[in-house]
Write a structure and sequence with these properties.
Helices cover 44% and strands 10% of the residues. The N and C termini lie far apart (69 Å). A two-stranded antiparallel sheet has the order 1-2. The protein contains three helices and two strands. The chain has two domains: 32 residues; 38 residues, no CATH class. The protein is mainly alpha-helical and 97 residues long.
Length: 97
């Protein structure tokens, strides 16, 4: 009877997609070769995906922050809606629809 190889892969730390890839590799080429292939693939992946900044959110924050600091704008506690107007930004309370 063949020995079952001991895996050094921490499966609890993997994402759902990575677990699927590991399972598919193990199923297609066997556990030992699949584990080696997965470890090689995992090393080639970038360490962390950084989400790009939302340019619109930055623009809105840069526009509204000076108004808030000068007490010319008060943002209500229940949230706010930001709309685009003719050459300006409109901030208003959400409607009760």
């Amino acid at each position: 009877m063949a020995r079952k190889p001991t895996s050094k892969i921490d499966e609890k730390a993997l994402t759902k997609g990575e677990l699927r890839k590991l399972g598919a590799l193990r199923k297609s080429v066997g556990e030992e070769i699949g584990d080696k292939a997965f470890v090689d693939w995992l090393r080639k992946q970038p360490a962390a995906m950084v989400e790009p900044d939302d340019n619109n959110a930055i623009l809105v924050a840069d526009t509204l922050l000076p108004l808030i600091e000068n007490n010319k704008l008060r943002i209500p506690r229940g949230g706010y809606l930001v709309r685009r107007g003719r050459g300006r930004v409109i901030v208003e309370r959400p409607g009760l629809d």
